[in-house]
Amino acid sequence: MKKGLVLGVYETEDESNISLTPTAAKYDELVKGKLQKQILLAGPKVPKGHARVFWGLDEKDYAGVAVVGLGKKNLGVNQLEEIHEGKENIRIAAAAGCKALDAVEIKDIKLEGFGDAEAAAEGAALSTWFYQVYKNKEKQKVFPKVTLYGEEEDKQWCVGNIKAKAQNWARQLADTPANLMTPTIFSEEVCTVLTNLGVKVQVHDKEWAEQKKMGSFLSVSRGSCEPPKFVEIHYNGADDGSKPIVFVGKGVTFDAGGISLKPSSDMDEMRADMSGAACVAAAIRAAAELKLKLNIIGLLPLTENLPSGTATKPGDLVVAMNGKTIIVDNTDAEGRLILADALCYAHEFKPKFILDIATLTGAAMIALGGAATGVFTNDGTLFEKLKEAGTLTGDRVWRLPLWQHFTDEMTKKVKGADINNCATTKAGGACTAAAFLWEFVAHDTPWLHLDMAGVMGPGPDDLPYIPTGMTGRPTRTLIQFLEALC
What we know:
nine-stranded mixed beta sheet, alpha/beta
């Protein structure tokens, strides 16, 4: 295979000059100034996130050298944007360089670390992978092999690869057609991958859920012939007997809306309505590979939501694990129903805190688009740690209100039951959904609810280093958050 190299250049105030990264400057010395000469001939300004490919600089090692624009030097956190611009520029540049070489059939790529090899590895690994599992083998694209140029940042490079590959796994789970990613298949895939890493995985069946009196969860599964599953993951990385963190992920492997049928347009994207569960499984995978000193429990309620003669009907009453009665006004508000019982079950582990994540509401997508994951919480300190994690990963979160006003909308306007699964008003849909979940969490237990419907993908706000399909967001933010807790 032809070999290629990706190097960086910074913006300068004098556009007639260039500022090579230290690694690029060393390479320029090796090729006796040819790199700098070629850049100047092509025009010294290399825009941020753009790449230029030069040929014939190095007859011995690299057929092509891609030079990418990194923007300004020494950028840190932009407080207004709530993003670490330096890290994000590196991810974007790494992606641009790798894609540029891949486009000219260079499949063996060396990439410099740009001073942050973790971010570089993330940009490279995320941008050079996309879902093509069931494409004809002869027509499948060969993904390039990307390795670090130099050894100074090898440890950071490995960490970045672990995080990106975990996100790519979440992308793969979410993009797999729903007939090939049923609750049973999903649970088998998670069990296989995590068990090989020494993580304990239990797959509970419908009878177990019935014994636990998970009437809310089971009500969603009634319309499908596919049996529901409840996956319980235990990662024990701390040896001090500390309380576990519990992550809960929504796992609707296909959501047609049930009797409250969704419009047919774009319904195929509802194969990814299990993205919350995929993110949880992927984050725990990375925690195991990084050997984080934490105890983490993952709870993944898995089901399809389909219409049929046995499906739950609008107006039906179901009873959750904690005994609360729920009027199901809208069967398409099903994610909160399966999460309700999972949140109740989470308390049995006496957790340090609970975090749930779900493609829960279109309202979150309307509010934030693909720019950030919406977060509702009763613990400001935990939120600040999660916010900082999103700032570093480039996959941001934004806090939304968990006010009594929204709880009243869900509990005080219902007759004959404790709570409605859907508010009578359409306003504040993400907030009323969070208020519903809040009814199934002990109020003295720290809790974070992440509504990631807007970042599931695909969409116009996708990150530049995630080329197509479902995004696997915000997997790396969850991993960064866990790292911060160690």
